[in-house]
Automatic annotation (TrEMBL):
<dbReference type="InterPro" id="IPR037401">
    <property type="entry name" value="SnoaL-like"/>
</dbReference>
<protein>
    <submittedName>
        <fullName>Nuclear transport factor 2 family protein</fullName>
    </submittedName>
</protein>
<feature type="domain" description="SnoaL-like">
    <location>
        <begin position="18"/>
        <end position="121"/>
    </location>
</feature>
<dbReference type="Pfam" id="PF12680">
    <property type="entry name" value="SnoaL_2"/>
</dbReference>
<dbReference type="InterPro" id="IPR032710">
    <property type="entry name" value="NTF2-like_dom_sf"/>
</dbReference>
Amino acid sequence: MPALDTSDLDALRLRKLEQLFDAFNRHDGAGVMSAMTDDIVFDAAAGPEACGRRIVGTAAVRAAFEGTFATFPDVSWECTRHGVFGDRGISEWIFRATAKDGSKIEAEGVDLFGFRGELICSKSAFRKDRPVLPAKGAA
């Protein structure tokens, strides 16, 4: 198989980011993981470490994303822009979700990605620290 030139690989990686967020918005754990390497490293936006919370490997990362889908049945990421720069990528988005108590989260964020070949090998999430919006009718 002939080697891909840089522009072809960048285009494939950009398409991979689009497919990834389509899968996130379908709440499709298998689809999300199909964009990632088996040794994926995901640094969540929040957690006890400087990197947030580091989650490693397909099973653990999939469980984390599926936990988000279960906690917030309407969760979505409205992507405003994707970019690929060699083996790095970035996605800008607005995270929207409603908790079971009716409170809402709506905040801008970005993901920084690392690629190995066409697949994502690292994802580091950053989200604005905006207060949760109370449920309608809550004091």
